[in-house]
Amino acid sequence: MTKRYVGIDLGGTNLKLGLVAADPYGSGRNKDGKLLERHSTPTEVAGGPDHVLNRMAQAVRDLCRTARLPLSDVAAVGAAAPGPLDSKAGVVVVAPNLPGWRNIHVRDILRKKLRRPVVLENDANVAAYGEFRCGAGRRVRNMVILTLGTGIGGGIILDGKMFRGTTDTGAELGHMIVHYGGRRCSCGAHGCLEAYASATAVVGRTREAIASGNRSSLARHRGFTCKDVFDAADAGDRLARRIVEETADYLAAGITTILHVLNPEMVVLTGGMMGAGEPFLDRVRRRVRETAFERASSACEICWSALGGDAGILGAALAAEAFDRTGKPA
């Protein structure tokens, strides 16, 4: 019997939601879910946790209203939030990009507001789960995702299950050290992958290079973005091209470490930097082949996400479906 589930992807700028149909007792595509309806609304983080949680609950009601589905017909809700968090307790421990979010009992608050079962998971974990269930990773059992945006998140699927680690911090792959004593990361450490290969880092490193006297067409644009850096590289800007190549190399260093520790069948890259295209991905693949153990790299496909921005909401909804089906976390 097909049921309806809601997935919420809590971001610092927007709340993204999806209504997903899945058959907990089916197989293949029916079990893996179909996205029926999307909804997006500003998060309004400046209003604080209570305000955002009210907006999350209202957004679920709005989504159901648009889909002409009574809220009571939603089997369960999956909420994806940035970490660190305690998924068993349903608590966001701290969210650096969400001011005031410390020890917030998201699961229990939403459960009370919506009167529906709610599960809370890390946003990158559910993106990995979405790709595993109905995206690029449908053919594999062991995969890793790297979300390349403002920061770098990580999600790990091992033998078909989300890997969380002892304290729900087992997949913080953006905080692997790739340059000991290097650039300061948003987490406070130095040399993290996030400080070199996130979209924010691409812009920051480019600005630093221009300030140091490097010539670039981007110097004329105060508010340039990561996409602008990649576009400038494509147009022949030498500094932008160097930044892009170095970014691919740092990302490859992180993926090589992942291959040596986890030996996955697939590494999926997603987030805003997907716009970098195939030349960027080809350089990452080439560098990984040059540095990783041959047996590990030859067995691993490195690819862009198949679901793009829908991975989080699909994964959150399907995490809710897994809990509804088994009574246990995905």
Describe the secondary structure blueprint for this structure.
Elements lengths: L2 E8 L3 E9 L5 H5 L1 E9 L6 H18 L7 E8 L3 E2 L4 E4 L7 E3 L1 H9 L3 E5 H12 L8 E6 L3 E7 L2 E2 L31 H4 L1 H13 L14 H9 L3 H25 L3 E5 L6 H15 L2 H5 L2 E4 L6 H16 L4
Parallel strand pairs: 1-4, 4-8, 9-12, 12-13
Antiparallel strand pairs: 1-2, 2-3, 5-6, 6-7, 9-10, 10-11
Describe this structure as you would to a colleague:
With 330 residues, the protein is of the alpha/beta class. The chain starts with a strand and ends with a helix. The chain has 2 domains: 3-131 and 310-326, ATPase, nucleotide binding domain (Nucleotidyltransferase, domain 5, 2-Layer Sandwich), CATH 3.30.420.40; 140-306, ATPase, nucleotide binding domain (Nucleotidyltransferase, domain 5). The radius of gyration is 20 Å and the shape is globular. Helix 4 crosses helix 11. Strands 3-2-1-4-8 form a 5-stranded mixed sheet. The chain has a 5-stranded mixed sheet with strand order 11-10-9-12-13, covered by helices on one side. The protein has a 3-stranded antiparallel sheet with strand order 5-6-7, with no helix packed on it. It contains 11 helices and 13 strands. The longest helix has 25 residues, at 238-262.
